[in-house]
Amino acid sequence: MTFATADLCDAHVDVVKVCQTPFRSFGQVAAFHGPIRTLSVLDDNALVRQTLERPGQGAVLVVNGGGSLKRALVGDNLARLAIANGWAGIVVHGAIRDRAVIDAMDVGVKALGTIPLRADRDAIGEIDIPTAFGGVIFTPGDWLYADADGLIVAPRRLHD
Q: Which domains does the chain have, with CATH numbers?
């Protein structure tokens, strides 16, 4: 079923939280939704890889990179893992790389921007804990909806 975040905001004004961070869209999937899984990392993407190597089961991976644009947390190889393992999409509060390749892939990625420098790989960070940016707390199990208008979060699925 298709959705529009604007319509969901209008219909569920009492439960929807709107992320105020202006994300850029990458990949061929312009809109995606699913239950939230979270990571909090800083310039390190080893946990991102480990998570995307597992079945996504239609979840959205929210990676809180602290808004850092120093190193890319997702590139084309990790985007391929997301597709292969059934992730609905990826939100990166930070940077990605390999934009031209990702833009040609059947994947939905929202990020702050791009940088060619790869991330560290020390596996430092936190997995599946509430994390916040853009005025929203992203809690594992809540639902995220992303489209051209932005990101919204709700404590439950909002449509069939």
A: 22-147 (3.50.30.40)
